Amino acid sequence: MSNLTDHRPAKVSKELANAAYDDFKRKAIDEAKKRAVSQRVDYDTFKNMVLTAHLKPITAPKQLNNDRPLPCWNFGVDGKMLKEQISQSQLPSTTPTEVPATSGDFTRDWRRNCPAPDDKYRYLKLCGPEGLRGVFRVEISAEVLREMLVVLEACWLGHGGAAEEAEGGSGAALREAAFVVQVLEAVSTAGRFSLTVKLLGTSAKPTLERLFSGLQSAALAAEAADPDKKEQPAEAEAPQEEGGFRVENPCSPTRVAALQAVYGLPPS
């Protein structure tokens, strides 16, 4: 069916439109009067509300004016607009090659240049226990300590197993466990460490339990591999230094148990 054509004269259509507008204006003014009375406004406010009742409110445009010139840094050297801006998080990472001098340097390299857990573990090997002892002499934050524990727990067995295969089973895994113990001991000398351990919360407890369980097993294995050697207290041990951390003496069960107490875990 074809649309019906409006054959009404233009004058009649205009009169209907005017009548509809007058009816709308009358209702709007009447509503404004009632609203002004209910609000108990003064005369000037009442007059303004009535005079502007039929006007439509002006709203801000949804989109900004795109006619403004773009800043110069939005363009490349060829004069064409860059499609993507490189943010700080997209900056290329650089593998650390030097021991950090401060905790701020450590945290920057730890988070920016060591994205993967293996990278973080190699960074700990680069720093060594003595380097970490100096960096965190004043204090270590609970967040950094939590991340460090997660990395040690996740990576030390894998790195130890790989070294064991490469060296043909020459005790590399036990030396890796000794390195982890040395790192935990070095970090525990930081100022207010007992408070930092409390700030770790219960979320870090499963990681600590798995880490110390593996270290205790490694210590027992090292003791079983050399039954003629009597265990000495941690204070009496005098390990040799090599590569920034002690590798000659494997960790002992007594040493691991004492360190476990420092990190807030009950004796197993």
UniProtKB/TrEMBL annotation:
Region Disordered: start-end pairs: 222-251
Domain named Dynein attachment factor N-terminal is located at 11-74
GO BP annotations, alphabetical order: determination of left/right symmetry; epithelial cilium movement involved in extracellular fluid movement; inner dynein arm assembly
Looking at the record, the residues that make up the RNA-polymerase II-associated protein 3-like C-terminal domain are: 100-205
Which InterPro entries does the entry link to?
CC103 (IPR042422), Dynein_attach_N (IPR031733), RPAP3-like_C (IPR025986)
| Subunit text | Homodimer.
| Family that this chain belongs to | Belongs to the DNAAF19/PR46b family.
> What is the designated name of this protein?
PR46b
